[in-house]
Amino acid sequence: MNIYEINTVEQTLDALHNDAKKDFMRIGKGLVKSAFRPMQPIDFKHAYLPISREQGETIRQLIVGNDCKNIVEFGTSFGISTIYLADAARENGGNVVTTELLENKARQALQNIEDAGLTDYVDLRIGDAMETLKDYDKSIDFLFLDGWKDLYLLLFRLLESRFHKNTLIYADNMDMTGTQDYANYILRKKDKYATQVIHNGKAYLSKFL
Question: 53: which DSSP letter?
């Protein structure tokens, strides 16, 4: 990777992380909409809900350090996490298949990924991840879970047959409501998964044994 590529990625990430600092206002508007009914993804169509820089760097190091090539992401949002994933995939000669339910987010994510110079390394599928990923037929080296929390376990089970020895699974927002079914499943399967809690309880990192 040359200096121009590094600068393009980092400049794009800087701009996106800075804009994401305004999320507290966007999230507040979404919470108002959901005051009288269960929350829905559409309530947060303008919010990044991003990973932190620290998480992004950890993910990038995990992918590069373990030579992960086939990377799957659940929950593109505006593309911050996807850029970290794709930047690491580029270094390894791999690619990212990612999925986003909301079309407005997906379209902006595609632009952000292009701004970072990473379009060639990303296949972004728009729609329900249970549909857009059901035909994924490659072995998975790295799975990143960061979409709607109630779907973590369902999507994990959908893709589980594509895991191989040493597949890594990074699940974000494990301190949020909705992830408990996934947590119970992954922690109960100690014969199949080695799991550690990282980033002060915010995420689980699991390895298929």
Answer: H
CA-to-CA separations, 6 to 2, 9, 76, 84, 103, in angstroms, rounded: 6, 5, 21, 11, 28
Query: CA separation (Å) from 135 to 23, 80, 97, 159, 185?
Result: 34, 25, 12, 9, 23
- In tens digits, what is the pLDDT along the chain, a chain of 209 residues? 666 666 899 999 999 999 999 987 777 666 766 667 787 888 889 989 999 999 999 999 999 999 999 999 999 999 999 999 999 999 999 999 999 999 999 999 999 999 999 999 999 999 999 999 999 999 999 999 999 999 999 999 999 999 999 999 999 999 998 999 999 999 999 999 999 999 999 999 999 99
Tokens, residue 156: 């994990």
Is the full-model pTM beyond 0.85? yes
| Alpha carbon of residue 134 to chain centroid | 17
Beginning with the edge strand found earlier in the chain, give each strand of the sheet holding 193-198 in spatial order. Answer: 122-126, 95-100, 70-74, 140-145, 163-171, 203-208, 193-198
The two three-digit tokens of residue 129, written as one number: 């991840």
Name which of 176, 140, 173, 171 is nearest 158 in CA terms.
Answer: 140
